[in-house]
Structure prediction request, 341 residues.
Amino acid sequence: MKKNKQTLNNLPTLSIVIVTFNNSLTLPFCLKAIFKQNYPKKLIEYINVDGGSTDKTLSLMRQYGFKIIKSPVANAEVQRAIGLRKAKNEIMVYIDADNYLPHNNWLLQMVKPFVENKDVIYSQTLRYTYRKKDSPFNRYCALFGVADPVVYYVGRPDRLSWATDKWKYGKITKKTKDYFIVKFNKKNLPTVGCNGVMVKREILLNHAKSDDDNFLHIDVYVDLLEKGFNNFAIVKNDIIHATALTLKNLIKKRVAFLTYYFNQVTPRRYKIYDYSKIGDNWKMFLFIFYTITFIRPLWDSLKGFIKIHDVAWFLHPISCWGFLYAYSKSFIKNKIIYAAK
Prediction:
């Protein structure tokens, strides 16, 4: 995107928030990309909410001039809520420690929908960046647009697969060459809110349940939808997500998230899978059937491979089995904990 005078004169102030806990392996790449951005530094505040890191995380953050805020717990959701309350600028920019901005105009491209549309409250990238040099499982997640095949098959992926150019989630109300605006409702809201996203701070702070016990990066957007804030921008851009080097690591992260997800003290407002709904049960049954038979995952892998020739597509059937295990383990663990209460 060209940096024209009108755009530069109307740029909003940004609060870049990175939550950390022993992320020294990925942070150098993350921070280096942030500080190469062609965005006026005077319009940005840099906040790190740390959950008690014992590696080189904090020294890296100090080196890059981040304001460090200590979190009482190493919980990314609680840390995001703390960052929201401590921030002062117009737009929150949630960048995870394993997110790398792929080019120097990334921030400029992501704020453009806010500059041109006063009703837009949120922006995210259309895809995850696909790079041939990445590990097989990082390439797999980027190619399918999700780190979880269950989300892919229940129809709530947070990014678009590289196998298609068609966005089919929510109602598109405006299209430009750089982005499109979508209206969502609670039934068709994808798993938004993480991995390099922007949101208006005052709206998120004042109209969502942003206290530590209620903040979860997907649920807060259900809160906003219920208050009538439903203009989301999908920018024709991407972001690098260093998801996992191995399937074991990927599943471990997912089990940890699902365990937290299922065991929230307060009722969930957003459910990836709601076992009380016939439609969701049917979709989960189909996922299990697809996984056991291998046919649909292989077909989806083949369609992707025809589009982009990379064998990482064919990790999909294996990943489906891995996540079937992850969901089963988390569900059983949740039932045991619930029964013991």
